[in-house]
Amino acid sequence: MRTRILLAVAAAATLTIAGCGKTPITPADSSAAIAGLGSEHVKVGMAYDIGGRGDKSFNDMAAAGLDRAKEELEIEATEATPEGGDDEGRLGALNKLIDSGHNPVIAVGFQYVNALTKVASEHPETTFAIIDDDSIKADNVVSLVFAEEQGSYLVGAAAALKSRSGVVGYIGGVEIPLLQKFEAGFAAGAKRVNPDVKVRTQYLSAPPDFSGFGDPDKAKKIATGMLADGADVIYAAAGGSGAGALQAVAAEKGATFIGVDSDQYQSADAQLQPVILTSMLKRVDNAVFQEIQAFIKGDRAGGTRRFDLKTDGVGYSTSNQALIKPLTPKLEQLRQQLYDGRIVAPTKP
């Protein structure tokens, strides 16, 4: 099984580097987006993780990519959300999409690995994609993975540049290697600009307990403790739990928050926006769109596609100009060094 080479510039859009949190630029002539993509009627199935569309984070980024594909590539799409947080619930969501004739089927999140392994072997004629896992080695499964450590490096640098106390915090949803990539990059970026910075780290749960992605009350309690311990910038990579951490930060004068996956400044309530320094952008939307586009073009082999700074896969947002603008020159310098390979962000704490 070959490793699939990512199209850095998709035919349907000219992508900008995500270092400044910019969104893809769509050509004025949208007919170019579907030119040459064939006449096959494509029905895409999207299986979200718990929380589904509307989580203001990971699922919503996948939904944005699907929405863009519906508009630009003229596909039909159906969405499903598991009824339970276990393999049986995820298996049900996948089978619902498969049984109704959807192909490709995209699974949002590594927790689909067991269910997807089963259905992929049972339905070799269907192309599947899974986000955040590359352990399934099957000819009909595409892995969409990201360089989260690079984006986290940049927001870690932003945290240290912004901090007055010299103490910053990282809250992870579940203590797994994927979330440790966020932690490692964040700490390294912070120490790059301030070697003396203290990075407080805490996870909400550990396997087999994955409740850390949906426990905002616990995240709020942990964030409150970090703030009391001197932290004045907190980065939460914890799915829906991040909302609790944001509430704690907003209640602490002078503290700021760093979001994850999507530009959380854009989705936050107006009273919370002023404390959001930036967000680590994980461009799941680009990954979903480009995978659907590849399928339409006939590229249906299994393999791995990695999204990093060079492919507009990760970055940081700049919506809150009042806070982020003074830091941007240094962050852009670091972004270029990561892009060029002069800095290699770590993937392990």
UniProtKB/TrEMBL annotation:
Top-level taxon of the source organism: Bacteria
Residue ranges of coiled coil: none
Domain ABC transporter substrate-binding protein PnrA-like residue range list: 45-346
N-terminal signal peptide: 1-18
Transmembrane segments: none
Topology term for the membrane: Lipid-anchor
Keyword Thylakoid: no
Alphabetic keyword roster: Cell membrane, Lipoprotein, Membrane, Signal
Keyword Cell membrane on entry: yes
GO cellular component: plasma membrane
InterPro entries registered for this protein in UniProt: BMP_lipoprotein, Peripla_BP_I, PnrA-like
UniProt subcellular location: Cell membrane
UniProt-listed PANTHER family: ABC TRANSPORTER GUANOSINE-BINDING PROTEIN NUPN (PTHR34296:SF2), TRANSCRIPTIONAL ACTIVATOR PROTEIN MED (PTHR34296)
Family (UniProt): Belongs to the BMP lipoprotein family.
Protein name per Swiss-Prot or TrEMBL: Basic membrane protein A
Native organism: Actinoplanes regularis
